[in-house]
Design brief:
The chain is an alpha+beta fold. It is built from one helix and four strands. The chain is about 25% helix and about 40% strand. The protein has a four-stranded mixed beta sheet with strand order 1-2-3-4, with no helix packed on it. The N and C termini lie far apart (about 30 Å).
Length: about 70
Amino acid sequence: MALKELTFGNLPECLVCEITHNNKKCFVISFYRSPSQNLDEFNCFMHELENLISFIISTPGNPDTILIIDDFN
């Protein structure tokens, strides 16, 4: 099993890990989003999350699983 941390600088307080096992690839996205975000901040956050997921999907060897976990507030 291989574990690799990825850097995606547009989402503060976000950790992305790629886990590979038996030729299967899983990405785990863990983040914190403040409940005090206003609508513009929330929309920006969602846009950046969409960009992150699009980036992951476009990586070579498409992921088998994308897991989004943590504090959604």
